[in-house]
Specification:
- The complex is a heterodimer of chains A (about 600) and B (about 575).
- In chain A, a hairpin with a 2-residue loop joins strand 4 and strand 5.
- In chain A, strands 6-7-8-3-9-10 form a 6-stranded mixed β-sheet, sandwiched between helices. Chain A has a 4-stranded antiparallel β-sheet with strand order 2-1-4-5, covered by helices on one side.
- In chain A, helix 2 crosses helix 11, helix 6 runs antiparallel to helix 7 and helix 6 runs antiparallel to helix 8.
- In chain A, about 65% of the residues lie in helices and about 10% in strands.
- Chain B has 2 domains: about 325 residues, ABC transporter transmembrane region fold (Up-down Bundle), CATH 1.20.1560.10; about 240 residues, 3-Layer(aba) Sandwich (Rossmann fold).
- Chain B contains 19 helices and 12 strands.
- In chain B, strand 4 and strand 5 form a beta hairpin.
- In chain B, helix 8 packs antiparallel against helix 10.
- Classes of the chains: A alpha/beta (about 600), B alpha/beta (about 575).
- Chains A and B meet through helix 3, helix 4, helix 5, helix 6 and helix 8 of A and helix 3, helix 4, helix 5, helix 6 and helix 8 of B.
- The structure holds adenosine-5'-diphosphate (2 copies) and magnesium ion (2 copies).
Amino acid sequence: MAYEYEEQEEKFIPMQKGSKAFRRLVKDIFSMKRDSTILVIAVLTTAIAATLYPLALAFAINSVIAGNLANLYFYAAIFFMLYIVQFFSNRERTISSTILAQSVIKSLRERAFENLQYVPVTFFGRVKTGYLISRITNDGETLSEFLTFQLPQVISGIATVIVSISIMFHYDFNLTLYALIVIPVLMGFTISLQSKVRRNYLRTRRAIAAITGNLSENINAIRTIKSFNVEEKMEQRFDGLNTTNFKANMKATLLASFYGSIIRIIEAVGIAIVLIAGAFQLKAGVTSVGILVAFVFYVQEFFEPVVQLSQLYNSYQSSMVGVARIYGIIDFPKQSATENAESSAKFHDRIEFRDVSFSYGEDDALSGINITIRKGEKIGIVGHTGAGKTTLSNLIMKFYSPTDGEILLDGKSLSQVNTGEYRKLIAPVLQEPFMFKGSVYDNVLFSNPGATREQIDALVGRFSLGEIFRNLPEGLRTNIGEMGRNLSEGQRQAISILRAFIRDPEILILDEPTSQIDPYSEKLIIESLSDFLKDKTLVLITHRFSMAALVDKIIVLNEGTVVEEGEFQDLLNSDGVFHHLYTIQYGNSGDS
Amino acid sequence: MVDLSDETKGLGKIFAVFGPLAFGLRYLRERKWVLAIVIVSSVIATLFRLLVPIFIGDAVTSVEKVQFSNVEYYSILIFVVSSVSGGVQFIVNYGSQYISQTYAYNLRKDVFSHLVRKQFGFFEEQTSGDLLSRSTMDIEASRNFILNTASQLIPTLFLIIFAFVFLFTINPYFAGIFTIAVPILIFIGIIFQRKQRTHWRRIRTYYGQMNEQLQENIVGNRVVRGFSAEEQERKKFSGTTGSYYDEYIIVAKLRGKYNNLMPLVVSAAATGILLYGGYTDVISASVVGPLVSAVNIFNLISFPVSFLGRLIVFSENARAGISRIQTVLDPVQDENLESGDQQRLRGNLKFHDVDFKRGDTEILKNISFEVKAGEFVGLTGRTAAGKSTLVNLIPRFYDADSGTITIGATDIRKVSLAMLRRSVAFVPQEINLISGTIKENISFGSSNDGLETIRWAAGIARISDFIESLPNSYETMVGERGITLSGGQRQRVAIARALLTRPEILILDDATSSVDPETELEILREIRKDLSGTTVITVTHRESALRFSDRVFSLNDGVLTEGEFREKEPVASGDFLKGENMEEP
Ligand SMILES: Nc1ncnc2c1ncn2[C@@H]1O[C@H](COP(=O)(O)OP(=O)(O)O)[C@@H](O)[C@H]1O
Ligand SMILES: Nc1ncnc2c1ncn2[C@@H]1O[C@H](COP(=O)(O)OP(=O)(O)O)[C@@H](O)[C@H]1O
Ligand SMILES: [Mg+2]
Ligand SMILES: [Mg+2]
């Protein structure tokens, strides 16, 4: 299975190397000073208690041998006390490691989410929704296991290794060197596998992202799938991805399990070397029996965490791939820096397109556009589908920037204006009404959380939209479902209109706002609109000439250029595109 | 169905830990033998690993006795035993992963196949983001449990039983003390289990919610930007991640307390043995060797016991995940897609006294009408009057509450859904294209057609010129949901997609609302010309399209009337239908 899309995505969202991502992660973790300190202390306390209780036990046994009951009780009490200490330190360890892990994950997700709000709009044309979701949720989750359970182990492991190595050196320098012979082998082995391990885990992350992406697309297209009765075809396609995921995981496991087994064998070799070397040294009289015995004990103490640490290596790699994928989103450059731009935007006079051209990539969607929208002016934009009307409105909204030429707000280039502030002047009705889960009220309030329900009710009354919502079981409080699925399309458009109007904006951009609304309701809306629009600037894209009454000037677009411009009557009288479109809609269509 | 409810009584409660395992076995099917191998291997690996310290002990003894040849012998033995245990451990690791991945694979497949068979109603209740998390992370949560039980449960239990038997052979009283600890452990386990439950449910739910909000935010990114609601959205999302975090911390606190309480109970028992054994030894002046072994054994099992505690955590997470997955696996809302090899449905389309309710609202009342085969009819009416609802009944996306719909002489409920939907092509208002090439999109419903036919369909939909003007023509990629196309282009691709199936009945539900009237009319004309045998129902608000239709129906307040077209001045459009009450709502 080829990963065409995935590779493209990874090129588009570059990924840091594992070690870099790790360093960054460690920084994130240790920036939480309190909890990381608690964690380290708790881990060390546990480790110390663990080394002490054999001692307490030994003293207790000695007391038994000595027949001293009082001492037995005393040491038994200490023995138990140590466990109680461990109980508390372990408890703190559990809690603080979870706090660290979950805080890191939470902050990664939130930062990724935040950046998504500011990446250029084009980003969403390149990256699939399900894949993005997978990065933020699933990839984030790979950290959970690693940070919660394994990080404490790493800390205690490193501590134990340091302690036991020092003791070993203290006992017998040469013998320690023998014991450490296998360490370079271990490291060499680990490093030689590194890139392979990483690639394997990357493959598993891709595979689960592909599954999520496919599911997301299928669920969203479920109506189409059902209409065309292609459920089984979709199942087959999903099965392909599911199988890829299975194989990717098994492949990663194969290497990880192989690695784990080899590590155990290397450990055995290490112990055997110590034993044999020790025996020789003993023979040569360089060392004593007592030291060798103690030594073997510490070699085991030393190897245990080494083996554990190496086994964590897989989990480490897998989470580093995951975290690097989230960092990719966090680091994605934001749409043109507006931070340093003037912080407030005002609209005094006009918006001007100066020789504006725009291309989505290949051909120009708009070329050589010169138009002026004066404050308070009402402009209509008409034209065939694909003419570039929506593109034009996208440029005004600053969703995209012109490839050529300039858009000026009161003479200042739009690229110099703070995007957020500028958009506060505008309220759009987009061609595709988008609804959030929640009630009708929630959806309207989205654009203006300060507004009240009464204001919405008043607005509904003013534009006679009550009739459109009459069927809703709980009126405007009705839950409309994800993407407003429990509504008719016309109702969604009505909400979209309300959402724009409740902002009482200076500039209204309406992109085919009533295309799915019946002409009678539309008429009612139009009747109240002229009053509402007083002092407002309007850009209206429409195929409905009934709306022409609202506008002062009409711009006709054709294949990305302005072909006609003027007042309704003038355009109607001239024999151009506009006249043609008009006749089609209202004149005699002929052959019916 | 495996019982995952809270209702299990008494001791059964602790066995409920294995509920997810029983659920998992269903998805292992003929791979159960792998599980058996893994379990056996895990026991062997554990045994061999226990041998290593014994041999080291022996080696040390030989060193002490200055028997150097024995040292070499033991060194080799250690190496061999470690290699064997390493090899067997490989089987355990790989095998348990195989088991858990097989489980996840089969479960995911099952989930998907249920998912695509769900009725529309299901998707109106669920959100896609949440469904995503059910099919990924919830499965993952249960997979993790299976992975851990497969590889570690049996050795763990084995170690505990081994410890018990060993204690018993040393001194039955020691075993007695151990026996007292067991019910306490179980009791703690049950409380631990119970206290976590609601929190895992919430964790899994919040995870779903996170997916849901991401989905909404990404798809609706233009609305968010358009209204500068970025900050608001960020707060909403961090509300969810915050709740998710809080629940995790609550579980961590429970874990910190109860999971560590378990080894503490074990060590209390060890202390008990130390005191009791020490006391009797002092009194009877016997050797201390057995006492030392007994206390050490206790040390040995405190890790397995705390592992069992962790297993409870995994199990609760898995259980919460599985109960969410079961919403999808529940076949109640599944459609039956079995296709009988019947003929396509042909003939007049007839509604007979059809009623349809959504909740308590009557959307369609007593609808009766007939459309002749090959006729071209327009359907109009006020927004939210129920037009879409009505046409959705034809391919049975919803079923009428009463009354019948027939095509030819056949009741549409009497034929397979597959056949019905192959006869009826439906172009909805809300267009959904898939990411892929334009060609893939057009041939979505009938992938066997060649480029010529695709061109033909695109030609009728008046989109072929545009497509061919693109540098990659039919191989041009359209973005997700078709976002690289303009609204009207998308609608026309969808029409071409429907035409390619050469349906008997074509339903256009306001499918040209973003297409300019001129192009729309051309499309309608082409359809009438090239698909002359096809019955066409077009839902529209446009005068020009209505004028083009053979007959026009109007739906208002759930009642259908046949209207006659009235020539009228355009500006006050909306009152162009005679004899019905559009003027006074
Ligand atoms: N995101 C995009 N990526 C690439 N091409 C696009 C994108 N959006 C629109 N286009 C193309 O730009 C042209 C103009 O589209 P648009 O402005 O949406 O037209 P309309 O006038 O119907 O609103 C169309 O040919 C369309 O295919
Ligand atoms: N999936 C749904 N769930 C609940 N109510 C719905 C759903 N779809 C539509 N409705 C409601 O049914 C009524 C009719 O909707 P619809 O048939 O889409 O109207 P039309 O197509 O005539 O505009 C509306 O009040 C709408 O809110
Ligand atoms: Mg458009
Ligand atoms: Mg509709």
